[in-house]
Request: fold
Amino acid sequence: MSALQHSHLKDEIARVFGTPAVVIDLDIVEANIARLQAACDSKGVANRPHIKTHKSPELARLQIEAGARGITCQKLGEAEVMADGGIDDILISYNILGEQKLGRLGALQRRVRMIVAADNPVTISGLPQAAAIAGRDLEVVIECDTGRKRAGVETPGEAVELAKLIAASPGLTFAGFLMYPPEDGWERTQVFLDTANAGLRDAGLEAGMVSTGGSPNIPNIGKLKGATEHRAGTSIFNDRMQMAAGVATLDDCALTVYATVVSRAGPERGILDSGSKTLTSDTGGLDGHGLILEYPAARIAKFAEEHGLIDLAASNERPGVGEVVRVVPNHVCVVVNMVDRLVMVRGDRLVGELPVAARGKLG
Amino acid sequence: MSALQHSHLKDEIARVFGTPAVVIDLDIVEANIARLQAACDSKGVANRPHIKTHKSPELARLQIEAGARGITCQKLGEAEVMADGGIDDILISYNILGEQKLGRLGALQRRVRMIVAADNPVTISGLPQAAAIAGRDLEVVIECDTGRKRAGVETPGEAVELAKLIAASPGLTFAGFLMYPPEDGWERTQVFLDTANAGLRDAGLEAGMVSTGGSPNIPNIGKLKGATEHRAGTSIFNDRMQMAAGVATLDDCALTVYATVVSRAGPERGILDSGSKTLTSDTGGLDGHGLILEYPAARIAKFAEEHGLIDLAASNERPGVGEVVRVVPNHVCVVVNMVDRLVMVRGDRLVGELPVAARGKLG
Reply:
């Protein structure tokens, strides 16, 4: 895209929507969807993208049309919006607890194929309520932790015990294992899986689904012998974190925040109209809060809620007040979650708006 | 509130809304509104609360009914919602730039009294467009920086030059100064103001409004000789940051996030269903990401998007899976901005829901 086309599109977006505007380029989105699908296909692993990044049934349908087996959600509210949008194979990679949520899960499972995760007996003890409401068996995978210290049982022995508990529970089907290997933890994940599978065999059970996850793990798809599916979310848009992880280039970043320079309070300082209520305080462990495409040497040093405070000391070129710039965020998933609509473009052409339909929904 | 009543309310909120739920106690909200008004009244300074914290016209009306002169907004989208909700005296403490926004500002100014801030000539050069649309003069205050290094001119000389520019611009009225003194910067703010006022006098101008700001500055209201108004936002709800600043106690915290313990992945670890998409990554410079009322020795150590990772090592009491807990967030303003609705209670009684009407609006 030439600088001139660029400038034309910035003017148009500022005129039509104002700034800050969260903008996705559909050409890049489609290329990113195709690349993830090809990565899965080449390894014979099913693609089950995580929709927490885009929260849009329209984009989920593009992923399914490209070949995805189903989708992954992180909460019921997201799954409800996706089912309403026509998606019929949904994994919720999360412990679902409490009567209110079990009722909603049962209602969903009546309409579409639902798979849920569990890492403890309390969660498992509630799930038969959902199956009873659905009137058919609910598939449950055991979440396993192989080093991230997030959710998940920490030993293969616990995984096998929970698998047996699921198999013995009315209305539940043991479906397999949900893994989220650290990028450097695939060998120990293999040991965990092999040990757990041996335990399953002794119990007369089998893991039909073995799901791995993570966009930084896309190069590792297929490394885990026995894996059947992969969940990647961020790769549909990419961001500075994915660039830092070496799995995306700037050309793969589909989402940018269009922001206006609202103040040049000092010679070496500037202020964007995008602060922690737009770009969020998620640093993702990186220095600075985003990459300003037009001023790559500028550093978004700090946020107020509606101010992005730019340090221009290292930047020879400096923007004037009123100038619109584009920012690649550190972590795109949380930025999408801040807005009700994304602006869609294709290259230098404005296409329209896309609702972030699954944002702000009940847990 | 006794532990028993407490537990009853937690069950009811989990059953009706599910978790995470962002809950405000109206008894505490009303007490906080009254306390801010009394602090302003006792110093003869008008109260112009900042609605960025609650984003609710209903709560803004409570503030006006308690005696506030008007409100402060940080962006046009907020002001539009507030004007629709019946608020007729609105300061936007922000540089408004670009044709789209100037058109919206003019349309607002036709309906209600609008005052806007500026800290540079480019902003001032655009504002007559809004006044022309409104068909009447627009009041403009100069934003002054006395140490925060955010927006604002850095010298009294610049402030006077901009005041003259405003006075010479068609359709604009110079209305005064917008200050946001650092909590330890009131003396130099006084020097700035006195010097600027002397410059104004030489130019035949006068600052009708001198606005100070900040909830941590509530104890400092009245310290600035010549101040006419104060803007405080967070004090309507309070949070861990306000407690750390010594301007609120736990009893003054009106907002808590009701969260469910969804996993006890290890003996010293737990996981809440509230991560960076609920509590946000704003630390406010504090250790940990919130205070769990039931387990004050537990530390919310880290977030995934929908996981709050709790370190229980220092906590003798430890929650079980499925237990609902209440979290006082570090920074309440950004938490409110994550949800479309707040749940309202009074003491141990569920009252209903309140839309966060000005969330997610156009810049």
Remarks:
- Chain A has a mean pLDDT of 96.
- Chain A touches chain B through 64 residues (CB under 8 Å).
